[in-house]
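Example record used in the benchmark description.
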Amino acid sequence: MIEIDEKRPRWREWLNDLFPPERDAEHLGFQDLLREAAARELLNSDALNIIYGALQVADMRARDIMIPRSQMASVNVDARLEEFLPFVIEQKHSRFPVIGDDLDDVKGILHAKDILPWTLEDDWDDFDIKDIIRTASVVPESKRLNDLLQEFRSTRNHMAIVIDEYGHVSGVVTIEDVLEQIVGDIEDEHDIDDDSFIKELDERSFTVKGITTIEDFNEYFGTHFDAEQFDTIGGIVAKEFGYLPKREETVVVEGFVFKVLNADSRRIRLLHLTCPRS
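Model output (structure tokens):
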């Protein structure tokens, strides 16, 4: 009969399998440990990539993934229901910032579901958007994504307004944006025609998803990257590195500066792009 030492934690057995006595685990980086675990089939590729994503989220900030101010879909606080309802339907978002005089004057967040009861009413004269909007969560550009995710969970908010050091609105970020950095793109029925693979931050700065096709990248930036060898911009950038890069690594391709914002063990997920000066 085999005796089992119930006092010995199972995780110790896992570590002993991963690091036999001849291996010095202290000299291995954590990502090296993960790769070794995957090589020994102690972790599958999906679990490995999620761990990679979770590690990188701790270093990323709201400004890295926010939807920039120029692309925010907002509703004016003084608009009548019949005026903005077609816009809400067209955008297909579940939440919208509600603004006053300008984008820096955020009054709250509109949940699309909250206007559904009103669409069944015959008379919309009594509708006032101020009666149904919710308090907006406001976070600085420098907010770390792991802290932001925790805040989303504790407050049950799914959207936050991102502001710069002067208090001006820089953009908006959602819980889905954060989770995508961990598990990869989360597609729903409305993402099929999503054109947000490239997001403009300012005149020369953009975030670009690694899966953006070369054709779309060339069309957007007027470039002529070769689409025969690679299908995506992430593939082009990885080729220039000569290996799969880690977060914060930078490479210049034809004058364009690409900085890796997020990558897992298989591909580049998100890039920060700085265009050459005209």
